[in-house]
Amino acid sequence: MPAHVTLEPKRFALAIGAVMVGGAVGTLLRDLALELQPAAANRTSWAAQIPWVLLLINAVGVYVATHLLRTVLRAHDPNDPWRLLLITGLLGGFTSYSSLVVSWVAIWHRSVPAGIAVAVGSLGTGVLAAWLGLRRRR
Amino acid sequence: MTLLVTSLAGALGATVRFLMEYVVRRHHPTRRPWATVAANALGSLIAGYVVYRLTSATDASLREILLTGFCGGLTTFSSAFAIPALLQREHHWAYAVVIVVTTPIACVIAFAIGMSLAH
């Protein structure tokens, strides 16, 4: 399956539709889950800025995406509607890199070492979640 | 209402990311996810601009729609790690590491650029 494929109009419309539906649902789920993030009681504390809920959302997103791409979506090319619905749309919309960067900078403003530590820790959760997703169940 | 618009903005963001990936894939027979890195950086740039531009309490809804919705949909954390994980499995170790390390650096630099554009 060549990676460089131009989709015909009908398949292209289906692709856009799959990404939009997945992206809308994923974003909705993230927005709802973020309600669980406790409001920062102390605005000067960097620890109150740690985005626990987003870190969990992102870790779950990486795990599920890696697992799906290793199992049921393994043979699917990047323009497959199921892959676009679930990986590009749903999990792409569910997880967020930009909100993570917003939190890193908010923490960095309060404590530079803490900002770096939380950023490295965030990347660590991503690597760990991907590693768990790659493991095959026996 | 804000929830619904945020969700639609997320759909729009995800579509922009797909189009970036699609255009790159169409022209370059590559499995390297540089379009995803670019989408994450672009979303971070817009987020930096929005955070420092829309600061008043009356902007709260618009901020949620743009930050949580559009930028959240445009950027992805799942693909930023799942795709390198698969590249690593195919013995493209260096590429996987470069993507995982480059993405946060590109995003923070882009965020700072967005921030400075807002001032």
Question: Key terms for this structure?
Answer:
A: mainly alpha; B: mainly alpha; 0% strand; globular
Separate helix tally of chain A = 5
The rounded distance between the terminal residues' Cα atoms of chain A is 29 Å
Counting helices, strands and paired strands, the structural category of chain B is mainly alpha
Report strand % of chain A: under 5%
Helix/strand layout:
The complex is a heterodimer of chains A (138) and B (119).
Chain A: H1 9-33, H2 52-70, H3 81-94, H4 98-110, H5 112-134
Chain B: H1 2-27, H2 34-53, H3 60-74, H4 78-89, H5 93-118
Task: Walk me through the structure.
- The complex is a heterodimer of chains A (138) and B (119).
- By secondary structure, chain A is mainly α.
- Helix content of chain B is 83%, strand content 0%.
- In chain B, helix 1 runs parallel beside helix 3.
- Chains A and B meet through helix 1, helix 2, helix 3, helix 4 and helix 5 of A and helix 1, helix 2, helix 3, helix 4 and helix 5 of B.
Give the gist of this structure:
The complex is a heterodimer of chains A (138) and B (119). Chain A is mostly helical.
